Amino acid sequence: MNASAESLDLMFRNARTHTHWQNLPVDDAVLREAYELAKFGPTSANMCPLRIVFVKSKDAKEKLKPCLQEGNVEKTMLAPATAIIAMDVHFFEKLPVLFPHADAKSWFKDLPENILEYTALRNGSLQGGYFILAARAVGLDCGPMSGFDNAKVDAAFFAGTTVKSNFLCNLGYGVSAKLHPRNPRLSFDDACKII
């Protein structure tokens, strides 16, 4: 069974990166629903390194503000929610639960930290992409971005943990009238080969 044309439009063809937001709150239940969908996307050995902090309160927004590059401050402060898409570099601690049919923890636990971080980054980025699609599927508009100081975000939100930030994603209900025309994308022939 294929997804409906309406679903494909919602998640891909008509979806845009938003930077202007309606003054409408995002219910916690909608954020939960988006995560509950995103978690089903595949990762290596089902490692699931994705960790998300949803920044919604005034205090949490003020904590995030000094971590942002200047051009990202206003749109992030006005977004009803900002997801800090992060990854647990010690994802292997959860593998006895997530990959119970093998001793997958032993595959990773003694690897150098840089290898663990690279593995978590690759798989956490996949999960971040799944999260964006899931958020769109439950009716949210998204504004994913870099343009922040990872070290400051990690110190402010993940101090004393093995979690590190990857990217940010503003969430809410966008103002479509303020969107610029869609930028071009590469064609299949420019980006792909079948061999």
Question: What does this entry look like structurally?
Answer:
There is one protein chain. The protein is 42% helix and 15% strand. The chain starts with a helix and ends with a helix. It has nine helices and four strands; from the N terminus they run ααβααβαααβαβα. Helix 2 (28-38) packs across helix 7. Strands 1-2-4-3 form a four-stranded antiparallel sheet. The chain has helices spanning 5-13, 28-38, 58-64, 70-78, 95-98, 105-108, 113-137, 150-157, 188-191; strands at residues 50-55, 81-88, 141-145, 163-172. With 195 residues, it is α+β, with helices and mostly antiparallel strands. The longest helix has 25 residues, at 113-137.
What attributes characterize this protein structure?
195 residues, alpha+beta, four-stranded antiparallel sheet, 9 helices, 42% helix, 15% strand, globular
Largest sheet: 4 strands, antiparallel
Q: Which structural class should the secondary elements be placed in?
A: alpha+beta
- Rg from C-alpha positions? 18 Å
Give the helix level as a range of percent.
Answer: 40-55%
Give the amount of beta strand, in percent: 5-15%
Helix count, per DSSP?
Answer: 9
Q: Characterize the overall form.
A: globular
Instruction: Please report the total strand number as a whole number.
Output: 4
Q: Summarize the helix and strand pattern as letters.
A: HHEHHEHHHEHEH
Unreliable residue stretches? none
**Cα distance spanning the termini:** 27 Å
pLDDT averaged over residues: 97
Q: Which strand order spans the largest sheet, edge to edge or round the barrel?
A: 1-2-4-3
